[in-house]
Amino acid sequence: MSPAPILSAFRQALSEAWAGGAGALLPLGFFAGAAVLVPLGIGTEPGMLRTVGPGILWVSLALSSLVTLERIFQADVEDGALDLWLQAGAPVSAIAAAKTFAHWLTAGLPLALMSPVLALMFQAEAGADLLSGALIYGLGGLAFFFWGGVGAALSATVRRGGLLIALIALPLYVPTAIFGSMAMSGAAGGDSAPLLLFASTLFALALAPFAMAAALRLAAD
Amino acid sequence: MDFLPHLDKNAAYIWACYGLGLILIGGVVIGVVLKARAAKSALERMNVSDEDAS
Amino acid sequence: MGMLSAFANPHRFLALSNWLAPLFYAAGAVLIAWGLWQGLWMVPKDEYQGGDIMRVMFIHVPAAWLAMASYSAMAVASFVWFVWRHELADIAAKAIAPLGATWTALCLATGSVWGKPTWGTWWQWDDARMMSVLFLLFLFLGYMALRAAMDSRQKAARAGAILAMVGGLNVPLIKFSVDMFTSLHQDSSVITSEGPKMAAVYLWPLLMSGLGHSLLFGALVMTLMRAEIWTRRAARQRASLLAGT
Fold first, then answer.
1. Does C22 touch chain B (CB under 8 A)?
2. A95 lies in which domain range?
3. Mind spelling out the 3-state secondary structure of A191-207?
């Protein structure tokens, strides 16, 4: 079984997600925009912003993932690429994982890299915590993209499936959101939180591709 | 109204809870039973028209 | 094996549910009524638990049990369908969803109303069980919305099964994470009246109410399944009529 379909799907997804040159700007713009709206809504008192900042960034990360995922599989269903993969006997779960990973690379990873900047805007203390925070957002974003990918695959045949994807993905996002924000805030239980985040992300990486593959086969029929 | 239980200051909340239960559960029971009846009569109508046709 | 075939064979299921469902309705109603009588009139109030308001537990706790049990049942039915493709298993999963969602919503609503006089708030983010039940409601709603969005019955069954199994595997993780989240904050004392230390005078009505709700739930599931079997039969007959056979 040659890796050709997986690699080509990966490359294709990268170029799609790179959105014709705009690249990571769109997801970054959304992420930043959503985060920046918050102080307009809840006030600017520094202590409060420092407290809610990480949580706000988690919410923005989750929403950003949902926004980018809507089209991840729909195009393949529509233009017949999915049928080609199935006919060629390619491992659909690996292809789905590669596509999801490509979308995370273009939309999730940049958000994680940008998180220190936004965290500073939310009155976080400058320091090593910002870097570990970026790592945690990276891991969490990976889980969000993979669970969201399951929702996207299930909704691939549904017109305007964005809301359905969000409804499906929301409960699946909960453990990542909880472990992630616990890891950020370093509250009681903060020691185990990064490990739990890592474990739950691995769980997503292990399970989601098979669910995506089953859903994509369904969409192709 | 002497047969009703004598509840303390939170009586309104207690009645609200059981009232919600009555409405939700009662509503579901009625809805489900009606749906089953409709499905059964639709099937019977289909069988009747089947006999007419054959 | 004869009894089991009622679960694989629609004919046998219809025959079985024809008498079992009314029995469950009747038994469920009796037990619920008894639980209500005990809970509202007979058992003494417990000032330590907040006075009369704890009587709400006789409807709230069974609803919580049913919320969790029915999601598990839906996940198991989905798995059975996914592996063995017994149509009845899919019909069961489809039937459980709206009913599970109803009892889940009832649990949330009664829990909220219970919380207001007890803790002063309509919603307590630190209550692990309520949070889990809230996410359970989303899981049910997502399942129903996904099935409804599919073009055909077969696709709805397949999509639903995938989602129910993914959800089912995630439920323990969700519960675990929610427990961790809520244990960070010590202030709330969660509804403690369901501990094993509960006095028999409260426990019996609670258990009987739980059994009664479960029987009623089972009767409703059977009724919805019967409706679905008849609907599918009518659709098949319509299709074969149109095909001219």
1. no
2. 27-220
3. CHHHHHHHHHHHHHHHH
